[in-house]
Amino acid sequence: MAGGLLRWLVFCLFNALICLSPVWTARSEAVTQGTAIVDGTAAISSTDEHFICATLDWWPPEKCDYAFSPLKLRLGGSLQDKVIYDTGDPQKPCRPFVKNSSEMFGFTEGCLPLSRWDQLNEFFTESGATVIFGLNALNGRVPVSDGSLGGPWNYTNAASLIRYTVNKGYTVSGWELGNELSGSGVGARINADQYAADLNNLRFIVDEAYHGSQFKPLVLAPGGFFDANWFREFLIKTKSSSLDVISHHIYNLGPGVDPNLVQKILNPSYLDGEASTFSNLRDILKSTGASTSAWVGEAGGAYNSGQHLVTDAFVFSFWYLDQLGMSSLYDTKTYCRQSLIGGNYGLLNTNTFKPNPDYYSALLWHRLIGPKALSATFNGTKMIRAYAHCARDSKGITLLLLNLDGNSTAQVNVTAHLKAVKLHRRSRTRFSHAHVAKEHKIAEGTREEYHLTALDGNLHSQTVLLNGNILDLDANDGIPVLQSVKVDGREPVYVAPYSIVFVHIPYFYAPACI
Questions:
Q1: Which of 153, 367, 385, 431 has the greatest CB tally within 10 Å of its CB?
Q2: Would you state the pLDDT for residue 432?
Q3: Where in the chain is the domain with CATH 3.20.20.80?
Q4: 108 in Cβ contact with 100 (< 8 Å)
Q5: How many helices (DSSP H) and strands (DSSP E) are in the chain?
Q6: What is the CATH number of domain 30-43+379-421+437-513?
Q7: How many CB atoms lie within 10 A of CB 277?
């Protein structure tokens, strides 16, 4: 039953219906006022069509459970650099991970049997998964005096797996070299110049294996924490055609055991701190002239599996959605959440496969938020976070509002930036009075709102409400219909304390979205 439920849930992440319901609002006695100003004249950046991604770690059952789903998936993690791949040679037995405290990450080297790889690819095919596979980048390395690992990457085993994958007709959408080996590294590190040489070799292997094929997978690296000097040197020394995606990881909240996680999540200044990572990487890509795209390859907020009833509870949606909104402003093309399942930060409950609150946040983003990011500013309290995109598969825009204040409802008026208003006025002179009248009527139409709140207002709750209704699986273990509320466009948006609101405004004038 659990396997079938998992398949259904991840299928629904891209196919759930969004309907309408009677108006619902939640307001506190204290009300603050503010204005969200959206500039729809031009997009300031864009994401991939499928921006939402989730990760799956290599941890064996002794560490945690894992599963697979039809999302954009990055299969990798801490133990990927200790995985070898079965070659079918009986002289080289394929043994699983074994606990050993003296080994890096507490486990011995483990092997991926070809039979298991076959089974996984069969499931990927059935579910329509888009898979990014993380390769072991430590084969052949030797310790050097500066504490890093030196010597060229021994790519023989990885090349064998890639060729096997191609020969079997399996579709792997991207091959990523290494996990958290950049900069200071985690457990081990490799210098940027050596990593660049190894990446160039991976590109050669991939090009050779896929020669004559219409499909060409992406090549990604380094899947580590952002270090400006290291990333710049890596990009400069990598051949311009070798690297499709430069990937980095985010755990900016610190360790999962930190008792102050909630305070960090609800602190706008703390959230703002991560913007420099996105902007600096964007600027490095521009300055080096690289055509490489930036991805967040893994982001769990709090490392070492997060914290139960924080990173798997309602409060974490403030961090998660803020990250999606912020990263999309700086040309981040894909954002991979750690994890789909496993640890205390999964989109799905590790034991039941039922959705945690962030599952619904991801679903609403995917259904309502299009790739084009717009400039949005909020004039008022700093406790409101505002992001805007062109609406997905619909007219107008979708505005995302996060209220980090637990005491006040924000009354938000949404307006267009002055230059968009001027452009709109100029364009109106070209039309007849009848057309202008019709346009005015549309501007006074209705919008759709999706209000997310925690059960009983408890930020640590793993139950989320949409417009006052509990989101839970139905009797057939199906995802509930996500019902919006229709609101008169002349009314302000009311954002309740500790709540999240997606607002689809189809009549908003945004030339960037036409």
A1: 153
A2: 36
A3: 47-372
A4: yes
A5: 12, 27
A6: 2.60.40.1180
A7: 20
Q: Among candidates 292, 148, 122, 314, which has minimal Cα distance to 221?
A: 292
Structure tokens given for 455: 């059960």
Q: Which residues of the chain have pLDDT under 50?
A: 1, 8, 11-12, 14-25, 59-70, 429-442
List, for residues 334-353, the tens digit of each pLDDT value. 999 999 999 999 999 999 99
Q: Is 440 helix (H, G, I), strand (E, B) or coil?
A: helix
Q: How far apart are the first and last CA of the chain?
A: 44
CA atoms of 33 and 425, how far apart (whole Å): 27
The domain covering 47-372 belongs, at the CATH homologous superfamily level, to: Glycosidases (3.20.20.80)
Contact 173, 218 (CB under 8 A): yes
Q: Which helix (H) or strand (E) holds 250?
A: strand 245-250
Domain with CATH 2.60.40.1180 in the chain: 30-43+379-421+437-513
| Cα-based angle 198, 201, 207 (whole degrees, multiple of 5) | 145
Place of tokens 């408890």: 458
Q: For residue 15, which amino acid is it?
A: N
pLDDT of residue 19: 32
Q: Are 389 and 369 in contact (CB under 8 A)?
A: yes
Q: Output the six-digit token pair for 263.
A: 């305070």
Copy the structure tokens of residue 411: 């009354």
Active-site residue list: 180, 298
List CB contacts of 440: < 8 A, sequence separation 6 or more. none
Helix or strand run (H / E) with residue 314: none
pLDDT at 423: 55
Beta bridge partners of 31: 409
Q: For the whole model, what pTM was predicted?
A: 0.91
